[in-house]
């Protein structure tokens, strides 16, 4: 019982630490996007289109070595863009096993991917039960993990080296519907306000709690806080809409004209596209 | 500075506004003329912010009639884009919470939002935004995200986002809320500048210390969401009974300044409601 109490108290403290961590990480990302580096110097449109071409190549390539080579290319680019390598690798590969790994896991086994066994786990004659990790299974799982790893690396590089506002601007210029870009921008903007609100709720709670609180009480409090936060965000959305109306918004978002496109951006976009085309050709 | 035909800027005639069956404004009548500086005084929840939103045509009266610049101020009237744009170019509202007002990804996007959405030409949008940011000394914040700014900086960006419109009428909701003394002082300087330009300034506040600096006229709200007094700032502020009644000062701890003595005053009373000074 005591142990469970300690555990639930830990959950609140852990959430606090995670919120602070998330805020710090985005601060770090924004700082990184301001550093002078290879990708930082490029126009967001060139990066966005280049990333898109490479993502298509990763999905289309049927050769594991080609996909691995595309992934390997992201590493020197990350270094040239001043992205700390440890941070970059951790960000891509630490959470991957939990998400993609779970999806890829069944593919290893004979019932899902039949073929030559690599490791036989169960082989009974009567009743007939057979379970093995197969070669084709390992290759299928490796394809999935490698594709996701390479794609996430490219997306992470794009986000870490481009300021959020510039990225939104690039989306606007590339004719992504304005309403979509506006919603994306506002979502990101207000996540901060709500994260701060949650942080304050948790801090206020921590400051008033002495000793141990039962798991049931903690759950009740978390549920009540979720309700309070929902009410707060609902009221906030109402007020923000009024603030937009007050300054002329009538349901149609407008944007300023595009920024100038430089020759260097064109060259780099061409480089990305050529790499993507070669990868698709080699990986046929 | 009076409107050309001396037409009032706002005319509210017996306005009532209810939200979810709760009365937020109760039978309010008010006339505002060009160049007036008015403080809407009242405790929290007395209806000040609601009144500003009615004046900015964000809320529409449940009962009663409202006119702005001689034209009806109704939801139907503002369906017409040209009329809505004409109204919004003339009236600017600065919200109390800058996090509500600053919804754009960067300071630049924020300051250009109003001129851009009110149909100004792009070169004029840029010219106005640069002018407003320069005036408020926030040019260096141009590419920053509003959520990363300090409270004082956020308030400046909120002011610049309205200033870029160059409105004739400024509606300010609790402008000094959560500002440090230096930012408050800068804000008062800014309001002073608007006054010199002959703008109409309507400020909702419960900060008695700034009232005489920002307003010549005081409209006072009590907890019944109705106007209980309307008059010159000095006369209204010296009516202590009314200030106490409307929860703006406390009977046992308040400032004595009408007599020239300015001090925080504590006292106990022997008999109930005895307030001899």
What topology emerges from the helices and strands here?
The complex is a heterodimer of chains A (284) and B (277).
Chain A: H1 2-34, H2 44-60, H3 64-80, H4 85-93, H5 96-104, E1 117-124, E2 129-134, H6 135-161, H7 164-173, H8 178-208, H9 215-246, H10 263-282
Antiparallel strand pairs in A: 1-2
Helix pairs in contact in A: 1-8, 2-6, 2-10, 3-6, 4-6, 5-6, 7-8
Chain B: E1 10-19, E2 22-32, E3 37-41, H1 48-55, E4 63-68, E5 71-72, H2 81-90, E6 91-94, H3 98-101, H4 107-117, H5 122-135, H6 151-163, E7 169-173, H7 181-196, E8 200-205, H8 208-214, E9 217-221, E10 227-232, H9 233-237, H10 240-245, E11 253-255, E12 264-266
Parallel strand pairs in B: 3-8, 3-9, 6-7, 7-8
Antiparallel strand pairs in B: 1-2, 1-4, 4-5, 9-10, 11-12
Helix pairs in contact in B: 4-5, 4-6, 5-6
Query: Which pair of chains has the greatest number of interface residues, and how are they split between the two chains?
Result: A-B, 30 and 37 residues
Shape call of chain B: globular
Number of domains of chain B: 1
Classification by helices and strands of chain A? mainly alpha
DSSP summary: helix tally of chain A: 10
Distance between the termini of chain B: 41 Å
- Count of helical segments of chain B? 10
Query: What percent of residues of chain A adopt helix (DSSP H or I)?
Result: over 70%
Biggest beta-sheet profile of chain A: 2 strands, antiparallel
For the largest beta sheet of chain A, what order do the strands appear in spatially?
Answer: 1-2
Q: Helix proportion of residues of chain B, in percent?
A: 25-40%
Task: Going across the biggest sheet of chain B, name each strand in turn.
Answer: 6-7-8-3-9-10
Q: Give the CATH level 1 class of chain B.
A: Alpha Beta
The main sheet of chain B comes to: 6 strands, mixed
* CATH architecture tag of chain B: 3-Layer(aba) Sandwich
The domain tally of chain A reads 2
For CATH, the homologous superfamily of chain B is named as: P-loop containing nucleotide triphosphate hydrolases
> How many strand units of chain A?
2
């Amino acid at each position: 019982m005591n142990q469970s109490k300690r555990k639930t108290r830990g959950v609140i403290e852990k959430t606090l630490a995670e919120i602070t961590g998330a805020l710090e990480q985005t601060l770090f990302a924004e700082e990184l996007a301001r550093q002078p580096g290879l990708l930082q110097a490029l126009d967001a449109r060139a990066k966005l289109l280049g990333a898109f071409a490479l993502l298509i190549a990763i999905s289309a390539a049927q050769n594991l070595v080609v996909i691995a080579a595309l992934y390997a290319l992201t590493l020197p680019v990350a270094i040239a863009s001043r992205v700390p390598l440890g941070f970059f690798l951790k960000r891509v590969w630490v959470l991957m096993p939990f998400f993609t790994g779970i999806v890829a896991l069944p593919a290893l086994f004979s019932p899902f991917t039949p073929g030559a066994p690599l490791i036989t786990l169960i082989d009974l004659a009567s009743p007939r039960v057979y379970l093995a990790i197969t070669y084709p299974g390992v290759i299928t799982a490796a394809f999935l993990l490698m594709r996701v790893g390479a794609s996430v690396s490219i997306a992470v590089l794009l986000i870490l080296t481009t300021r959020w506002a510039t990225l939104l601007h690039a989306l606007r210029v590339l004719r992504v519907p304005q309403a979509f870009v506006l919603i994306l921008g506002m979502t990101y903007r207000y996540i901060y306000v709500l994260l701060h609100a949650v942080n304050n709720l948790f801090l206020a709670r921590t400051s008033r709690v002495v000793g141990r609180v039962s798991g049931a009480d903690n759950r009740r409090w978390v549920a009540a806080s979720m309700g309070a936060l929902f009410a707060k965000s609902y009221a906030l959305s109402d007020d923000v809409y009024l603030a937009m109306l007050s300054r002329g918004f009538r349901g149609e978002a407008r944007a300023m004209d595009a920024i100038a496109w430089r020759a260097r951006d064109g060259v780099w976009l061409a480089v990305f596209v050529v790499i993507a085309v070669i990868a698709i050709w080699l990986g046929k | 500075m009076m409107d050309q035909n001396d037409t009032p800027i706002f005319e509210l005639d017996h306005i009532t506004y209810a939200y979810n069956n709760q009365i937020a404004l109760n039978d309010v009548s008010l006339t505002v003329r060009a160049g007036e500086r008015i403080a809407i005084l009242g405790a929290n929840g007395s209806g000040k912010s609601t009144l500003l939103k009615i004046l900015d045509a964000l809320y529409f009266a449940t009962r009663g009639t409202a006119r702005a610049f001689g034209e009806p101020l109704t939801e139907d009237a503002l369906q017409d884009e040209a009329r809505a744009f004409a109204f919004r170019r003339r009236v600017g509202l600065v919200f109390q919470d800058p996090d509500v007002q600053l919804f754009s990804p960067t300071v630049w996007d924020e300051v250009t939002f109003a001129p851009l959405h009110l149909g100004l030409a792009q070169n004029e949008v840029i010219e106005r935004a640069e002018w407003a940011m320069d005036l408020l000394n926030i040019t260096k914040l141009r590419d920053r995200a509003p959520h990363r700014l300090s409270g004082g900086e956020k308030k400046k960006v909120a002011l610049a986002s309205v200033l870029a419109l160059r409105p004739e009428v400024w509606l300010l909701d609790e402008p000094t809320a959560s500002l440090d003394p230096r930012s408050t002082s800068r804000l008062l300087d800014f309001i002073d500048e608007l006054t010199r330009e002959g703008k109409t300034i309507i400020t909702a506040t419960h900060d008695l210390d700034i009232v005489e600096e920002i307003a010549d006229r005081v409209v006072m709200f009590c907890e019944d969401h109705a106007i209980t007094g309307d008059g010159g700032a000095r006369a209204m502020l010296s009516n202590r009974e009314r200030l106490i009644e409307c929860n703006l000062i406390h009977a046992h701890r308040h400032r004595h300044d009408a007599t020239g003595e300015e001090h925080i005053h504590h006292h106990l009373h022997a008999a109930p409601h005895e307030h001899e000074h």
